[in-house]
What we know:
heterodimer, A: mainly alpha, 0% strand, B: alpha+beta, 2 domains, 3-stranded antiparallel beta sheet, 9 helices, 9 strands
Amino acid sequence: xxxxxxxxxxxxxxxxxxxxxxxxxxxxxxxxxxxxxxxxxxxxxxxxxxxxxxxxxxxxxxxxxxxxxxxxxxxxxxxxxxxxxxxxxxxxxxxxxxxxxxxxxxxxxxxxxxxxxxxxxxxxxxxxxxxxxxxxxxxxxxxxxxxxxxxxxxxxxxxxxxxx
Amino acid sequence: xxxxxxxxxxxxxxxxxxxxxxxxxxxxxxxxxxxxxxxxxxxxxxxxxxxxxxxxxxxxxxxxxxxxxxxxxxxxxxxxxxxxxxxxxxxxxxxxxxxxxxxxxxxxxxxxxxxxxxxxxxxxxxxxxxxxxxxxxxxxxxxxxxxxxxxxxxxxxxxxxxxxxxxxxxxxxxxxxxxxxxxxxxxxxxxxxxxxxxxxxxxxxxxxxxxxxxxxxxxxxxxxxxxxxxxxxxxxxxxxxxxxxxxxxxxxxxxxxxxxxxxxxxxxxxxxxxxxxxxxxxxxxxxxxxxxxxxxxxxxxxxxxxxxxxxxxxxxxxxxxxxxxxxxxxxxxxxxxxxxxxxxxxxxxxxxxxxxxxxxxxxxxxx
Lengths: 164, 367
């Protein structure tokens, strides 16, 4: 029976011993060790986090570089395209202008030709009219050179007039 | 190679224990006649004693001598405090040797100090072997072998953990070295596998010193109990020891109990009123059964281990033939190996259950 009866003496000494042990270990062992362990764990966690952050930053940097490169490439493309466009435009503009110039010159030439032609025609007409009058004058003069012929003419004309 | 070393050690330990039990048995034989009583031998080893008996030389001869560490007997009686060395009993625990101190006569009856009544000169026993003319002193605060071994164990614990704690220097970035790298996994184990899951991430810190201390205190005393030459220093297999630790767990649980915990005991939420009334006494009993189960579990497991090993060794003397020795040795080797595992398991169970009770006491309502 006394195997399962707690002896007061041992209870007393166990209690004292345990409390002393708990006090000393808590102050000089558990707190420093647990503190150090958790501090180290924190340190590891921080180190991992900052490594992750650095990696992220690196990635961002790389992405930035990539983006800048892309932009530069796009810009070059755009510049080249502009240049090409400008070239084409200049050529076509020049062509258009030349065409217009040519048309204008042709028109002017046409107009000049026309007016020259008209002038030539008018001169020709005048010339022809003069010639005709000269001829007519010569013919009339020739016709009316004798008296018979003049009377005959008058008579013809009178004959015609009676009809009216 | 390490396995071989380990095996050699275990075997040496077993043979030591065997030879040692031999001494014990024969001394019992010498005093009580020729009959070997395994029960008495086992109980004598499992229970506490006033002296730290290591070995007996020249058994049964004229010049018989004992190697014993004498420990102080401290008793408080009606006549005041009396202290004397346990050597004064001359290894007698049958009440024959009468020690007179402070005008009182003390005897050692089965490792319990009795004070002889006024005028008595010799202990008289009743039919069950209890002294009839002697009484226990009011207080018996003797440094018994369990107390002594407990102190040896805390000296070792303090040495291990204080020197481990010194290894943690900020300069070294808190990287453990030497003994610290051995104890740190254990400490982290208690924190991550016992305290955190049982109590919760926010509140476990308050209980860490207690949990770590009981874990290592119980474990090292369990291990000490397995060292044969220490005469079965059965500290953690003593009900007084487990009672004290369980009582501390009970006190901490009770004082850290929050509103939610007490509500669950006295007025269980979420059940009908008759059920609440029915559950109240059960919960109140449960409050006390928990630490009692802690107390009995540790005591019974460790004591049972000792009893089995001693009983197996007793077989040799019960059958009175050396042919029994191989069987006893093989079986006790087997049990001892199991006991090595049990030392850690019982410390773990005591700690995890304490943590569980603290966790239950501090759990927040989650309805």
